[in-house]
Amino acid sequence: MSTFLTEEPTQVTDAAVSTRLSSLDTLESEAIHIIREVVAEFEKPALLFSGGKDSVVMLHLATKAFWPGKVPFPVLHVDTGHNFPEVIDFRDRTVERLGLKLVVGSVQEFIDRGELAERADGTRNPLQTVPLLDAIQSNKFDAVFGGGRRDEDKARAKERILSLRDEFGQWDPRNQRPELWNLYNGRHTVGQHVRAFPISNWTELDVWRYIERENIELPGLYYAHDREVFARDGMWRAVGEVSQPRPDEEVITKTVRYRTVGDMSCTGAVESAAATVRDVVIEVAASTITERGATRADDRISEAAMEDRKKDGYF
Amino acid sequence: MSTEIDTARAAALLDEAPLAHASLFRFATAGSVDDGKSTLVGRLLHDSKAILADQLDAVARTSADRGFGGSAGGIDLALLTDGLRAEREQGITIDVAYRYFATDRRSFILADCPGHVQYTKNTVTGASTADAVVVLIDARKGVLEQTRRHLSVLQLLRVAHVIVAVNKIDLVDFSESVFREIEADVQKVGRELGLGSDGITDLLVVPVSALDGDNVVERSERTPWYTGPALLEVLETLPAADELESHLESFRFPVQLVVRPQGALAPDAIAGGLDVEKYRDYRAYAGQITEGSVKVGDKVSVLTPGQAPRTTTVTGIDFAGAELTEAVAPQSVALRLADEFDVARGDTIAAAGTVREASADLYAALCWLSPKPLREGAKVLVKHGTRTVQALVRSVSGKLDLATFKLEGASSLELNDIGHAQLRLAAPLPLENYLHHRRTGAFLVIDPLDGNTLAAGLVNDHPGDHEDERYSI
């Protein structure tokens, strides 16, 4: 017989009377709990906000967490200089609507100052790390919310909801704090900061169902539209200032949508007729390709691409 | 380039089983690689169609490279759970990995806990949030010392449902007698521990072949003597811990922060027609219900350390503009109270008359998770609910031999040890027995120097406490 904690059980009342929460309600409550914990325990949090769907959902959750008050932290965007103009426009309108402060870290400015060098492949996503860490340090942010989800890839599957970063913004997968119950330990020393991922446990389908349920506005790129594209590396690239077809790449007009809206130079579109949020929910439910594999060129560089970037202080 | 979609099928599925009603279920796996745990996890993901085409392609390529000839179309399912490059290079599994899949009845969060090294740390971590834990046993080996250790930890952590999967049943020719013998051994260990017979936990035993899929998603014809449900059916139908705890009469609500916007009302809410006058003096207490339920009009006690409990009435339950009449665990809400008490983060709001007095003496079981050992006299931090206080480790009164379930003398605790300790807190906390209160009976022990988490703590009753003395308000 165990000598531990042996005692009579408490009485349980009629199991049929109480409401059962849906999985989305449970995930929403978990995320709001985490957002409130971080705001309560940190001096100066900020939310990474790109106008992408995960960060839009994060911001929506923050508005619910502090209603009827304002969201009590600024938003931070690392602008690669290659963003879709309509996404930047959406970002600015959202910040205005919610009365938030926007902090922008600019990859272009770092390149102009000679502190970052353009890569041979033209991709700027990996260049975001330096401006991100600079913005965190110069603004003294001690917690940074991100919309990262564990279903995105193998590295994220092992990352904590509160992820401690050292002075260089590095993630050490072998030295993570155990995360127990709903007790989050965000203690850190000077120079360290914490990345907080309140929607860690959401899947892509959860995000889309939540966008549908909550009637959340997204940049139009997420829905089917006609666009001039060319094929490269097995995906459709938009023709734009920073993504020009080579002579052997034929430009055609296709009905496409984007599943992620990062840097124009490395984000591909998928052929899709999903013009409404309902269409997208159905498409995502039926899809047989994970979103990063389908549309991010920089994750194809190697299977361990995300792991390498995270160790370097990426989102 | 284009996603391969059968949208008609997806639309039909969504209409048939609207996901809006699917609930969330968290489970963990415990066992070593040799027990076929990775294969079982891979099988669950594969057969529930959670594996996507590009992932499957990558795994099929690697399987072919390694000359694998298993029965799932030549795919080594264990590769689906292959981890980080750092792990592959060193041939180790670093940490708990979280995976997601859904059926039309439930969404699942799976905490895949490595078994070999630091099994206590990983099992405790995975089990702390789990509604159920699946423990693997190799049918050829039966109940091993490691099985006893796993079951012991799960009993201690009060995991609601423990499912023992007797794997590789194909390798014992689907023998009923082998299964029955193991099943009897498991039930015997369960009885020794009080697991499955304490009215809180249950213990189920299922014969499976992860490699071939028998009794994993579908019931197998090769085990006609087994009439119970397949593993996934079990996971789809067991009540989640939150469902069980939302029915408890003991409402608990640690206050996270006070929502008091004063002038700083949200511009979008104002644009949406918020009554600015009504909310000018708005004051509510935000938090997540850890157990039980609350209704408008309920009598509650506000527990502030160092003060006598104050009783008041709930006048409103708000959630982002919606006024609710009732809320249940684990909902995040904001409560309005009748009296203008000074309530702050770290206080607990609880059903009136159900909480014993706060205490600065903490008797607990500690699962030691740090390479830095615990010594008597150490100063640590204790995080309980939404409050963190300093604490002094007065004494370590023994550690548990997980294989024999006996308590042996000890004056320190090392990594992966589980022992009893007495701590003196700098401020009293509304501590409750973990056995009955999985959230308010749990705490973290934190190193004040570097902020790292040292231990998972489970509150015990004070020595000599009796059930009827626990309620003092």
Description:
- The complex is a heterodimer of chains A (315) and B (473).
- Chain A is an alpha/beta fold.
- Chain A has ten helices and ten strands.
- Chain B contains eleven helices and 24 strands.
- Chain B has helices spanning 7-16, 37-47, 53-65, 85-90, 119-128, 145-156, 176-193, 231-237, 241-245, 267-271, 276-279; strands spanning 23-30, 97-102, 106-112, 132-138, 161-167, 202-207, 252-259, 284-288, 293-295, 299-303, 310-319, 322-324, 326-328, 332-337, 348-351, 359-368, 374-375, 379-384, 387-401, 406-408, 412-413, 418-429, 442-446, 453-459.
- In chain B, the strands form five sheets. Chain B has a six-stranded mixed sheet, with helices on both faces. In chain B, strands 7-8-14-11-10-15 form a six-stranded antiparallel barrel.
- The model of chain B is unreliable at 1-5 and 466-473 (pLDDT under 50).
- Chains A and B meet through helix 1, helix 2, helix 6, helix 7 and strand 10 of A and helix 1, helix 3, strand 2, strand 3 and helix 5 of B.
Estimated share of beta-strand residues of chain A: 5-15%
**What is the structural class of chain B?**
alpha+beta
Q: How are the strands ordered across the major sheet of chain A?
A: 3-2-1-4-6-5
Q: Helix count of chain A?
A: 10
Number of strands of chain A: 10
Layout of helices and strands:
The complex is a heterodimer of chains A (315) and B (473).
Chain A: H1 23-41, E1 45-48, H2 53-66, E2 75-79, H3 85-98, E3 102-106, H4 107-112, H5 129-138, E4 143-145, H6 154-157, E5 162-165, E6 193-196, H7 204-214, E7 225-232, E8 235-238, E9 252-257, E10 270-271, H8 277-286, H9 291-295, H10 305-311
Helix pairs in contact in A: 1-2, 7-8
Chain B: H1 7-16, E1 23-30, H2 37-47, H3 53-65, H4 85-90, E2 97-102, E3 106-112, H5 119-128, E4 132-138, H6 145-156, E5 161-167, H7 176-193, E6 202-207, H8 231-237, H9 241-245, E7 252-259, H10 267-271, H11 276-279, E8 284-288, E9 293-295, E10 299-303, E11 310-319, E12 322-324, E13 326-328, E14 332-337, E15 348-351, E16 359-368, E17 374-375, E18 379-384, E19 387-401, E20 406-408, E21 412-413, E22 418-429, E23 442-446, E24 453-459
Helix pairs in contact in B: 5-6
